Amino acid sequence: MKFPILLAVIGSIHLPIFVISSRLIPDPSCKKSDPTTFRSDQMTVIISGYSEHRIPLLHSIAAAYSAAPTVAAVVLLWCNPSTSPQTLSHLTRNLSAAVLRSPSSSLNYRFFPWEIIKTKAVLICDDDIEPDPSSVSFAFAVWKSDPDRAVGFFARSHAYDVASRTWIYTMEKEKYSIILTKFMIVNFKHLEKYSCDKQYREARRIVEDMNNCEDILMNFVVAEENQKGPVMVGVKGGGIRDYGDARNDGHEDLREVGLSSRRGEHRKRRGECIREFHRVLGKMPLKYSYGKMVDDVGEQGLCEKGGKLVLCDQQDFR
The Glycosyl transferase domain covers which part of the protein (predicted)? Predict the structure, then answer.
C-alpha cells in the first residue's frame, strides 16, 4: 500500500513527511539496523506531539532545534489518532520538521526505532520544551563523551521507602537515577532494545495500561545495558523554556494536554510503575548518579511568574 509523501527541507537535508491516516498504517515491525551506516556527528530530534492546542508552539520549538548545528533532522511524531489529515497537512506548512503520524497514541512509540532515523544519537523530547541551540549542542557533546548513557536536563529518582517497604518515585537534591523525556538523548540501539526485545514486552504493556512511565522504562533499559546511571547536564541561567510546567502563570491551554498529563497523584502513579517494572523484570537496574555536571540536582526549566521568566525550581516541586 502506498501513502502520500511530502518533503520538508531542513538545512540541506530533504526529509519525507508522512501525513497519513492512522487507520491505514499497520503497526511497524522491528527491523535490525546497521549501526555502521549511522551518523555520529549529529543527532535526530523526535518531538512527541498530541494536542492541537500546541500546534502554534510547535513551529517555534521545531525551529529552535533545527537551529542547533548538532541536529541532523527534526521529526514531529504525531500521536493523536483523532487529528484529521487536513489538520496535519496544514501543520506541515512552514514547519522545520518532518511529520510522522504514529500508528496509535501509545507512549511506547516514542521510543520506536523509526527508519527515518539515520543518526546514532536520538533526542526524545516533549512538545512544550523549547531549549536554546547552545543548550542542545552542549547536551549532545556530553552524550558523545559516553554514548551508552541517557543524557538530559530534567532528572528524578527512585528510592526504597523503608517504612512502606516499597519502591517510590521522588526527587532528591544530591542524586538521581531517571532522566525525563522532556529532553532525553539516548543511543539508537536503546530504542531497538526498548521496542524489540521480548524481555520488555510485559513492561511495555504496563506503559500501555498506565498511559505513563515510558521514560522510566527507558531508564531501566539503558541502566540494564550499561550498568551506569544517567547524566544530567546543567545550563547556566536556565536556557530551557518549559511551557508545560504547572507552575507557569497563564498558558492554561498549553498545560496538562499532553499524552500523559501530570494531573492528580502523579508521583504515586509513577511509583507504581517502578514497582511494576521491578516485579515483571525481576530486578532493579536503576543506578544513581550524583550530578557532577551540575551544581545541584534541580529543575532547569523556565516558567512564567509575574510576567517574568524564572527558574521553575524557585517554587515547590510537585
Answer: 44-295
